[in-house]
Specification:
Length: 57
């Protein structure tokens, strides 16, 4: 049975990707040259689509 996501696009967010043990090489690509930080978990990403509650750095 598929796990229900808390909101649309959550399967692309850093918090989810870390929890499902996405390979570090993929996480590094998402976090390289960060432009945004998540107000919920403090993870960073280049693209705001990879965070639940992004704010510009």
């Amino acid at each position: 049975m598929a796990k229900k996501m808390p909101h649309a696009g959550h399967d692309k967010h850093m918090c989810y990707l870390v929890n499902v043990r996405t390979p570090i090489s993929e996480l590094k690509t998402i976090a390289k040259d960060p432009q945004y930080i998540c107000k919920n978990c403090a993870r960073v990403a280049k693209n705001l689509k990879n965070l639940c509650n992004p704010v510009k750095l």
